Amino acid sequence: MNEDAAAELQALRARACGPDADILRDPVAYDRLQELEAQLRTEQREPERSEGLAAAASEASAAASTNDPESAGTAVPGSDEPASESGARAAWSPLSRVPPPARAFWLLSVTAAATLAASVTWGLASIPVISEGSGARQIAALEPDPSTTAPSFGSTDTPPVGFQFAGYTLITAINSSDGVDSECLVVFRTEDVDDESGFPNGPTYYGCGAGAFPPTASVQIHAGSPAAALERFGDGAALQFVLEGDRVGVFVDSAPEDPVN
């Protein structure tokens, strides 16, 4: 090993085990240290004798390692690291050259990271699971009905679209609140529509969308519901209307297996 390589090795060893050890944060320097260490070991193991003497020494060394159990674990000349049980030098580890205080700090860092990961996992696992959907069955997909009387709810800049289903009228609307326009779906009994104003004179049900959530409106079927809905689904059932693009999906719970069309 020439003087430049030896000086570089000395500097890298200082970065690995010196008071300001930082080689663990520099993969390139760490790889270079391993390369120079390997080069030094190779040069230290090169025989200075002739090929005949080298062969004889190799055979004698092999025989001694086999017959003398005390030879296992002896140190490699020029190194402060013990050999493995087979007689070969143990692989270089960055922690083997890190001072005890730095090594303890590294172990504490690993432990803290593991504890944090475990706490995050526990936190996510402790959130109560809420059903992602009602599991209700879809029974229809409504297309716009041109004959529907569609009064303008909310903003009048966007023309409303009307739908009809089982005695109910559904109207789209735009609601502006806090400078944000939200698309909404309004549901009411068709029989409640006033002939003059076009607006319902009875209960209305509505829901507005937000982000990825579509406008949704739900109604309970009871004695005051439209006769068509009460006859078809029965008292106590519930309908949910979901606006998706230019269609409305109809979902029902407590519906008969084969609802009347």
SSE string? HHHHEEEEEEHEE
What is the domain tally?
2
Rg over alpha carbons: 41 Å
Largest sheet: 4 strands, antiparallel
**Structural class by SSE content:** alpha+beta
Let me know the average pLDDT. Answer: 75
Number of H/I helices: 5
Beta-strand percent range: 15-25%
CA distance, first residue to last residue: 92 Å
What is the strand tally? 8
| Net shape | rod-shaped
Protein described:
It is built from five helices and eight strands, in the order ααααββββββαββ. It is of the alpha+beta class. The chain folds into two domains: 97 residues, no CATH class; 117 residues, no CATH class. A hairpin with a 2-residue loop joins β7 and β8. The termini are far apart. About 3% of the residues have low confidence.
Q: Which key terms come to mind for this protein?
A:
single chain, alpha+beta, about 20% strand, rod-shaped
Question: Can you summarize this structure?
Answer:
The protein has 261 residues and is an alpha+beta fold. Helices cover 32% and strands 21% of the residues.
Summarize the SSE layout with pairings.
Layout: H1 3-17, H2 27-45, H3 51-67, H4 100-125, E1 137-142, E2 162-165, E3 168-177, E4 180-189, E5 204-208, E6 216-220, H5 227-233, E7 238-244, E8 247-253
Antiparallel strand pairs: 1-8, 2-3, 3-4, 4-5, 6-7, 7-8
Helix pairs in contact: 1-2
